[in-house]
Amino acid sequence: MDTTTQEMVAPGFPRLGQPAPAFEAPTTHGMLRLEDFKGSWLILFSHPADFTPVCTTEFVAFAELAPELKKRNVELCGLSIDSTYSHIAWVRNIEEKFGVKIPFPVIADLNKNVATLYGMIMPGESKTETSRCVFVIDPNGILRAMIYYPLTTGRNMQEILRLIDALQTTDKHGVATPANWKPGEKVIVPPPATTDAAEERMRAGFETKDWYFSKKSL
Amino acid sequence: MPCIDSSGQMTEMARTMLAALSDGATLSELAQKTGLALYRVRSAVRELVEAGLVEAKDETHVLTEAGRAALARASGRS
Fold first, then answer.
1. What is the ipTM of this complex?
2. CATH among 2.60.120.290, 3.40.960.10, 1.10.10.10, 2.60.40.1260 for B12-77
């Protein structure tokens, strides 16, 4: 039987920069807790339902993305309001029909505890399914990014990979990344916080449009 | 569960984990020895601790008496 922690869960939305909501839940890889992923980045994502076409294309795409994520110390964990038996049957079906093995665990969130903690259910779309949500959680358990897609639109894996690359680049180099940034391109130097620093910035040797807008190569 | 099935029997994963823990190991060492992701190792070790087969000593995990006996029985069968 699929059960998660029996505590009542208050509906809400997680917040960026704060600890991601803790959970313990049954998955296709056994009972897992959020803390089990400590030390790795985690992409926790939800899909509306097993054995549906858009979700199937996404699972195949996530599985194909997994090796690139592994290189970046990123684990994947899926979720929907289905049973572990349904998940097992579906991932076996994907392997049989599409030739793709699903390497990541999938949470069976039948009592909606995790979905509620993370605000994955959008009642305006569906009260019984989770939307296409992506939560990026860093190795310290801090929620770093969220993406919400509607039921009808499959996610873009390259954008998810780009987001991971951007976050890891920010952490490593203390910089920000501009619109449409890709690895190898110039990054944004954080704006100076004082008038003196602004003056210095103009002579700092960066590619500077004005005191608040500087780029550099890594 | 990955280590103990619904009939209370040890799974292949449990036997793998117990064998890898025969001389004690940290979670990272265990992940390296078994080739499993760290999250799976943490989950499996927690289950084995709850089953009384493994105990934590500082950062290292070791087999309990029951764990050694279970491993011996499993080895005898194979």
1. 0.86
2. 1.10.10.10
